[in-house]
Amino acid sequence: MKKQQIIYWSATGLFCLWMIANAYAYLTSAQAQALCTHFGFPGYFRIELAIAKIAGVIALLLPIIPARLKEWAYTGFTITVISGFIAHLCSGDSLPASLSALVALAILFTSYYQYHHFKSI
């Protein structure tokens, strides 16, 4: 059981750090603003996405959050990451530039699988 806890918290912590870094960049970086423009998104979308990512990270990390809200956070992150991958490809970015989204998705799925493993114990 200890091994599963380490895997869960490592995957969840890494993913949450990644999402917080993205949210911070969306709020402060001119490069992130240019990327949203490159994708064809309106300027306010990056602000909404940053707020949603921060809320999702809080939902995943705090143990007092009900399981149903954690499920919604996992679902929202899955949709966001897959949409990011598609946005990269559709805007003409190369496949290697788009692969970071798939890495994030793999880390998220590891966290999700381990989360359900703990819930069943």
Automatic annotation (TrEMBL):
GO cellular component: membrane
Membrane topology: Multi-pass membrane protein
Keyword Membrane: yes
Keyword Chloroplast: no
This protein's UniProt keywords: Membrane, Transmembrane, Transmembrane helix
Annotated organism of origin: Filimonas lacunae
Transmembrane segments annotated in the record for this chain: 7-27, 47-65, 72-89, 95-115
Cellular compartments annotated: Membrane
Species classification: Bacteria, Pseudomonadati, Bacteroidota, Chitinophagia, Chitinophagales
Protein's UniProt name: DoxX-like family protein
